Amino acid sequence: SELIRGFLLSGMPCPSSCPPGLLALMAPGLALMATFSLSSQAGDRRALPVEKPPGVKGRTLILLDVNTKSPVRIISENFLSLQLDPSIIHDGWLDFLSSRRLVTLARGLAPAFLRFAGKRTDFLQFHNVKNPAKTRGGPGPDYYLKNYEDDIVRSDIALDKQKGCKIAQHPDIMLELQREKAAQMHLVLLKEQFSNTYSNLTLTARSLDKLYNFADCSGLHLIFALNALRRNPNNSWNSSNALSLLKYSASKKYNISWELGNEPNNYRSLIGRSVNGSQLGKDYIQLRSLLQLIRTYSRANLYGPNIGRPRKNVIALLEGFMKVAGSAVDAVTWQHYYIDGRVAKVTDFLKTRLLDTLSDQIRKIQKVVNTYTPGKKIWLEGVGATSAGGMNNLSDSYAAGFLWLNTLGLLASQGIDVVVRHSFLDHGHNHLVDQNFNPLPDYWLSLLYKRLIGPKVLAIHVAGLQRKPRPGRVIRDKLRIYAHCTSYHNHNYVRGSITLYIINLHRSRKKIKLAGTLRDKIVHQYLLQPYGKDGLHSKSVQLNGQPLAMVDDGTLPELKPRPLRAGRTLVIPPLTMSFYVVKNVNALACRYR
Q: Care to name a GO molecular-function term for this sequence (predicted)?
């Protein structure tokens, strides 16, 4: 029986030397098995259709094994990173980045990059003035109540007196006033976004100090995107304002990496003239030369060109850029939004076709990059469930997590080095933290990912039975399984442990039996489900049945696992996301960094 088990789990045919009796015993078992590999290099993973033999139940046990000898990919320690949109200058939230609660939430996701960029990047001007009372960005003085202005100034003065990391405890009335102002400004920002017409923004020296303080206090590395739409008459980049910002940052010894512009493929719609790939490449060469002239940034990292969805014209722009500046950037970047936020429905987040749209984009970007600079790192910057600012009770709900977790798994398995989530906090509904500074479902999902997932990606092998599709239909994989070495930073698990994360888009539960090297190991379950009566629309989540919430402004809750006995079948509830740490596997791929 052990020999039969070995052949069934491996998917290997019985050798010719097998006795006839053994072949007869094995025949029924082999008829039930359809083995397919979910290699981490595969983008579109489809199950092989198999005839369902008589008497076999629809709910089939799935056998899962992991290749523990060597990783198939190694991604950055900062793989899951964050973005802040410059709109926080407009709506006033930049003044509250020193909040203890926000810093605590951001620290939970460290180490990571913090990218300061977005639609308003190319309308941002730096003004080297420190007086907060006279040089506030955003609306005019009549917009802000006088006592609100005074509160901000007093808060700034109090922060200035602190040494090291500057943390503020803002009074409730001050936060309430800010929410009222932000709600009014939200309508202005949305109007700009839908009309694709943006007003200029001023970033003062004090605002830059606050931004850097937030990143530094939170353990995040700041990436600042400079305005690329300041152009000379010959359409070359005018770097005078950028140079002023660079000199100020260098005088403060700020450790910053840099970018230039945001979605250059859209410049024609913004200013009536385009910047082609070749010219953009020259602009990046110019920026690299500027950085080398400033001692603090002579070795600073430079990323770009942050193009949009890789359609034909965008690919042409990227090719022109890579020919000129491919060697000047430390990583090639692009961005992706799955759905138009104005028309999205909750069922959209359950469509496997939607989850798979990213695979084709990855292949297109990799093809261009590997043509001009083989081996160059690729980042996905500015990724979100929906565009147009998202939709309330949808892109900020539990349902959006299916897209987010699958994005993380797919990008890691395809070798994308970093993914930057839009956004940590902003005026829309794609954020991880709302304007009451409460973490949303995707924050908790990201926190679990950071705590449990290491940079080494492992190949998985699955064996199971799939139902025969009806004529004209294709079976799509609604059970997504990814595997990594467990994070080395998690001291609850010894090196050599493995973490699985699983997305079940089926409306029925699925059973998984761990096989091979994972067989008969103790497993810790982290099952994330919606909390409350709103179901998939919920903005609250529970972990193993316990609702998740901050303990206080300075403390995140303990993420407690549910231990499962060795050899127990994993039961994955319908429409859920879960993590499973397989302890003490002693995986060769995971013993060392």
A: hydrolase activity, acting on glycosyl bonds
Give me the residues paired with residue 203 across strands.
Answer: 126
Q: Could you tell me if 45 and 38 are in contact, meaning their C-beta atoms sit under 8 angstroms apart?
A: yes
Rg (CA), the chain: 26
Q: Are 290 and 243 in contact (CB under 8 A)?
A: yes
Distance, in Å, from the CA atom of 114 to the CA atom of 397, rounded to the nearest integer, reads: 23
Whole-number Å distance between alpha carbons of 419 and 404: 11
| C-alpha to C-alpha distance for 306 and 301, rounded to whole angstroms | 15
For helices 357-372 and 312-325, angle between their N-to-C axes, nearest 10 degrees: 30
What SS3 class is residue 450?
Answer: helix
Q: What is the CATH number of the domain that holds 527?
A: 2.60.40.1180
| Phi and psi based region of residue 316 (left: phi greater than 0; alpha: psi -120 to 50; beta: remaining) | alpha
Domain that holds residue 490: 61-73+457-590
**Cα 57 from Cα 55, distance rounded (Å):** 6
Which residue type is seen at 350?
L
Helix/strand/coil percentages in the chain, nearest 5: 35, 25, 40
Nearest to 103 by CA among 159, 184, 161: 159
Signed CA dihedral, 58, 61, 67, 72: sign only? positive
Cβ(213)–Cβ(97) below 8 Å: yes
pLDDT along the chain (593 residues), means of 10: 40 42 36 32 35 44 94 98 94 93 97 95 90 45 54 78 85 90 85 84 95 97 97 96 97 98 92 92 98 97 96 96 98 88 74 90 97 97 71 84 96 97 84 94 98 98 64 64 97 96 95 95 98 95 98 97 96 97 96 87
Q: How many Å apart are CA 261 and CA 272, to the nearest integer?
A: 16
Other CB atoms within a 10 A radius of the CB of residue 153 amount to 14
Q: State phi, psi for 348 to the nearest 5 degrees.
A: -60, -35
Number of domains in the chain: 1
CA–CA gap between residue 23 and residue 14 (Å, rounded): 7
Sequence-ordered list of residues with C-beta below 8 angstroms from that of 491, at least 6 positions apart, any chain: none
Give Cα 108 distance to the centre of its chain: 14
SS3 per-residue string spanning 458-523: ECEEEEECCCCCCCCCCCCCCEEEEEEEECCCCCCCCCCCEEEEEEECCCCCEEEEECHHHCCCCE
In a domain, 509, yes or no: yes
Q: What is residue 439's DSSP assignment?
A: B
Q: Residues 96, 435: contact at Cβ < 8 Å?
A: no
List the structure tokens of 274.
């385009």
In a domain? residue 526: yes
Residues with Cβ < 8 Å from 383, sequence gap 6 or more? 335, 336, 337, 407, 419, 420, 421, 422
What is the rounded distance in angstroms from the CA atom of residue 345 to the CA atom of residue 380?
Answer: 24
User: What is the maximal distance between C-alpha atoms in the chain?
Assistant: 92
Which two tokens mark 80?
Answer: 């899951």
Q: What is the predicted pLDDT for the residue at 589?
A: 97
Q: Write the burial class of residue 453 (CB in 10 Å: 0-12 exposed, 13-18 middle, 19+ buried).
A: buried
Burial of 187 (0-12, 13-18, 19+ CB in 10 A): exposed
Q: Would 563 be classed as within a structural domain?
A: yes
Residue 102 within any structural domain of the chain: no
